[in-house]
Amino acid sequence: MKENPAEQLTTMIVRSLDICAKYLSDDIFARLKEMHEQAKNVPGSKDGLELRIYDAMFNDLSKAESLDRPCCQDTGVIQFFIEAGTAFPYLAELPGCLQESVIRATASVPLRPNVVEIFDEKNTGNNTGKRIPWIDWEIVPDSDKIRLYVYLAGGGCSLPGFAKVFMPLEGYEGAVKAVFDQIVSMGPNACPPLLVGIGLAGQADAAAKLSKKALLRFIGTQNSNPKAAELEEKLLRTLNSIGMGPAGFPGSNSIMAVHIEDAGRHTATLAAALSTGCWAHRRALIQVNADLSYEVASHKRLIRRVD
């Protein structure tokens, strides 16, 4: 008998969690390869520490594939970001499917149980808990599809995160300085090379959400505002000149990309937030149609091999 829609959705999400934990998305994998090649051209790099760390990263990814296990032991706290078409026929079933998929994937992938209930200080054992997995919804009118982003938010890459509202006279310069200072001081804790997500808005909560959504963008994309895109590029160049390399050791590059997402602000306030993704930045994008056919759009290079 054909599976019911809820079971189909759950199975689909479990599979996406498995792929996300074990394989880097196409854009992250390609950027790491590019940075590895760049490191080879740095004077005195032959057999140097920077190259050995990159070699270890790619050896890790190879072992994860051959041994069929996650590429990092910290499989994070699971977050889902959903662009949901209003006409998608299974919206009501989706929250339950997401919850169940996390429980199943924790056992089958396996994912390390990371969720600890605040105040109780007790690990739930299955990566679910109060408001976890975290689910963020964005409604898309006149669509019968969903785009589901899966993100494994590791502990190390969450350490540099912050959100702050700046005094009016601090302006954009104050926000940029705060991001720069945080990457310099806390970036090595997050396992570079890093993907840097910055949110700019009028309130701290809005900026924080946007900084996390910035991590979902594929490398190679730009903010639609030319001034924001220019700032992304300037920050990338500047942060890559500070002498931090892979794993936080001295090196030539520390940042894979800088992504900025923004929202309108109050005339008197500017809020900025920072989120970072580590070198093993594990996210996946699933595009699901009304008939439950789907594509793992983030991992096209290997989808035939893991089917």
Walk me through this protein's architecture.
The strands form 3 sheets. Strands 4-1-5-10-11 form a 5-stranded mixed sheet. A 4-stranded mixed sheet has the order 6-9-7-8. The chain has 2 domains: 1-154 and 280-307, no CATH class; 157-277, no CATH class. It has helices at 5-22, 26-40, 49-67, 94-108, 155-158, 171-186, 204-214, 226-239, 303-306, and strands at 77-85, 116-117, 122-123, 134-140, 146-153, 162-166, 194-201, 255-262, 270-277, 283-288, 294-296. With 307 residues, it is an alpha+beta fold. The chain contains 9 helices and 11 strands. It is globular, with a radius of gyration of 20 Å. β2 and β3 form a beta hairpin. The relative contact order is 0.19. α2 (26-40) packs antiparallel against α3 (49-67).
Side by side, the strands of the main sheet go 4-1-5-10-11
- Let me know the average pLDDT: 94
Rg from C-alpha positions? 20 Å
Encode the helix/strand succession as letters: HHHEHEEEEHEHEHHEEEEH
Number of helices, counting only DSSP H or I runs of 4 residues or more: 9
Whole-Å distance between the termini?
21 Å
Number of individual domains: 2
Q: Low-confidence segments, ≥5 residues, pLDDT <50?
A: none
What's the number of extended β-strand segments? 11
Largest sheet: 5 strands, mixed
Principal-axes geometry comes out as: globular
Strand-pairing-aware structural class: alpha+beta
Helix fraction by DSSP (H/I, runs of at least 4): 25-40%
Q: Proportion of β residues? A: 15-25%
